[in-house]
Amino acid sequence: MKTQVIKIDAENINENALKPAAEALKQGMTVAFPTETVYGLGANALDGIAVSKIFKAKGRPSDNPLIVHIADREKVSELTSFIPDKAVALMDKLWPGPLTLVMKKSSVIPKEITAGLDTVGIRMPEHPVALELIKLAGIPVAAPSANVSGKPSPTAAQHVLDDLDGKIEMIVDAGSSRVGLESTVLDVSSDPPVLLRPGGVTPCQIEEIIGHIEIDKTIMNKVTADNVPKSPGMKYKHYSPKAHVIIVESSDINKQAEVMCYLAEKYKKEGKKVGVCATDQTFDKYCLYDTISMGDRNHPETIASSLFSIFREFDGRRADIILAEAVDQNGVGLAIMNRMVKAAGYDIVKADLVNSIGG
Ligand code: AMP
Ligand code: MG
After folding, report:
1. Whose CA is nearest to atom 5 of ligand 1?
2. Of 233, 261, 277, which closes a domain?
3. Which residues does the record give as ATP binding sites (predicted)?
4. Ligand closest to the CA atom of residue 187
5. Can you tell me which atom of ligand 1 is nearest the CA of 197?
């Protein structure tokens, strides 16, 4: 299969250029497109055969449900059997945007989408190209991240090509994704609602609108027999570059950098190629190593938007080990740390517990 790339200017959308992509979706093909979170791999959500092509192209386990993307609020009542008041309040305030709401599904949703669950995740993206594409297609569009399952999500069309060239029909290229991490997933089919995956919308923003929510324990903790995530996708190895990721955590950034340098030196001496994920505040401390700044600790959204592309960049540089600084879990920091710990397979070095280095 030849993968066709269509370039679209997000500031000045050429509808005629976008039409073939909408047509391809209508005809049951797979089309990758930009959203504000990451690039999605879309197919007609009402067509089980089209949806199964997504699973095949990504190598996605069939028990991991897909999020359905819409451009029009009216569609929610067609796709669900019950819309709680709290969902309405959240849609009013936070849609379009990086928030997926899990609700009881209606009978139009094919079983391939929900992996047999009686709920469906729905989101209205805010990216103008995503909205226009879904409007032109006139159908709800199922779209997980457009990467090979398990790898870091794509935040640019080139990342999609790197993973899925020849496996999907089309890619709509409209530059880089703004948020850089996937949507927040909130299950509003239960009360209080449960945060299943942190993302671009923070728990604080949600609680300001609907009051208390619960946070699924598996967001920051290992999945075990007694700690099973409610979101099936969260049990898989995720977001992982080829390199082994190690996170270094500390309440003191100087101590954190000291332990990072110690580990960088140790792995370098073992003949490993090391990549360092620093922050603007600590970048200069790593001048002896191959270092990229993830962004500014005081503006965690800058870190969110670069994290996955830095993982991919270090894979391109053939790093064996990626050492990454943990950041604060406040606000979007919770989503950043959720992705980091999953990428690292929970390999976290607690620098505060390291007493003497090199001793
Ligand atoms: P992705 O499409 O790769 O961004 O992943 C979608 C995420 O949403 C996965 O973690 C899924 O498990 C989760 N998800 C989608 N639909 C549901 C649902 N009906 N119930 C619980 N989690 C869901
Ligand atoms: Mg994904």
Report:
1. 144
2. 233
3. 60, 64, 119, 145, 153, 197, 239
4. 1
5. 10
Asked which of 206, 233, 260 is the last residue of a domain, the reply is 233
Asked, for residue 151, whether it belongs to a domain, the answer is: yes
Atom of ligand 1 nearest to the CA of 232: 12
Contacts of 142 (CB under 8 A, 6+ apart): 42, 43, 44, 45, 51, 54, 66, 67, 68, 69, 113
Would you say 104 and 80 are in contact if contact means Cβ atoms under 8 Å apart? yes
* Ligand 1 pocket, mutate which of 36, 196, 235 (most atoms under 8 A from CB): 196
Percent of the chain surpassing pLDDT 90: 91
Does one domain contain both 163 and 74? yes
For 218-249, how does the pLDDT look when each residue is reduced to its tens digit (9 = 90+)? 888 877 767 777 777 666 667 889 999 999 99
Phi-psi region of 252 (alpha: psi -120 to 50; beta: other; left: phi over 0): beta
Q: What are phi and psi of 156, to 5 degrees?
A: -150, 155
> Is 153 labelled as part of a ligand binding site?
yes
153 CA: nearest ligand 1 atom? 3
Q: Is the CB of 139 under 6 A from ligand 1?
A: no
Among protein residues, the one whose CA lies closest to atom 23 of ligand 1:
231
Residue 243 marked as a ligand binder = no
183 in a labelled binding site: yes
Q: Write out the H or E segment, with its range, that includes residue 173.
A: strand 170-173
Is 139 a member of any domain? yes
36-79 residue pLDDT tens: 999 999 999 999 999 999 999 999 999 999 999 999 999 999 99
As a whole number of angstroms, the distance between CA 221 and CA 233 comes to 14
> Do the domain assignments include residue 156?
yes
Alpha helices by DSSP H, the chain: 15-26, 48-58, 75-79, 85-94, 111-114, 128-137, 157-164, 203-210, 253-269, 300-316, 333-343
Which residue has its alpha carbon closest to ligand 1 atom 7?
233
Decide whether any atom of ligand 1 lies within 6 Å of the 102 Cβ: yes
Angle, alpha carbons 114-119-124 (nearest 5°) = 85
Query: Which range marks the domain in which residue 335 is found?
Result: 244-353
